[in-house]
Write a structure and sequence with these properties.
The chain is globular, with a radius of gyration of 17 Å. With 167 residues, it is an all-beta fold. A hairpin with a 4-residue loop joins strand 10 and strand 11. It is built from no helices and 14 strands. The relative contact order is 0.17. The protein has one domain.
Length: 167
């Protein structure tokens, strides 16, 4: 995996190049995966250009980690610059501590030679003196058109489509 820091629109970002795919991670806010495609292909993720938000929280689109159950805490803005770590075969992007929750969210990305794609690892670190209660909620925004295939379990494939599936 080749890792390069570049701008993506108005985002500071890290471009992760695999054999035949590209993944772009926003680091000026987030962390958030903004872009995923085959090389020279179009973005498979939704990009929000409407400035939609709740208070200071913005949709932005892409893929991000938040917390569940859905509540006001799910929409605490993740608008602060992130810290970037690189190592042999991985990229890790970590948000600053969320002072209201006492947690740190991070995303670690590896290139997967077997499937010629990326493995995504989300982590939440509790920096409070009390036990954090909740669940991790990884949200992926995709455009409202097209067909999505997602591997759920080894060998099991789910077909998500807005059209009814015909036998």
């Amino acid at each position: 995996m080749k890792v390069v820091r570049e701008l993506y629109g108005d985002w500071d970002a890290v471009y992760c190049y695999g054999k035949d795919c590209l993944l772009i991670v926003g680091i000026s806010r987030g962390p958030r995966i903004l872009y995923y495609s085959k090389l020279n292909g179009s973005n498979l993720l939704y990009e929000d250009n409407t400035n939609f938000g709740l208070g200071n929280w913005r949709l932005y689109g892409g893929h991000r980690l938040t917390t569940a159950p859905e509540s006001e805490e799910s929409y605490i803005p993740d608008n602060e610059p992130c810290t970037v770590f690189t190592g042999q075969g991985f990229l890790k992007v970590e948000a600053p501590i969320n002072k209201s929750q006492g947690i740190i969210k991070s995303i670690k990305i590896y290139f997967d030679d077997l499937y010629s794609g990326f493995l995504i690892e989300h982590r939440l670190f509790n920096k409070n003196i009390t036990i954090w209660e909740g669940a991790l909620w990884a949200i992926t925004c995709v455009p409202a058109v097209g067909t999505i295939y997602s591997t759920v379990d080894a060998g099991d494939e789910v077909h998500l489509n807005s059209e009814p599936v015909k036998d």
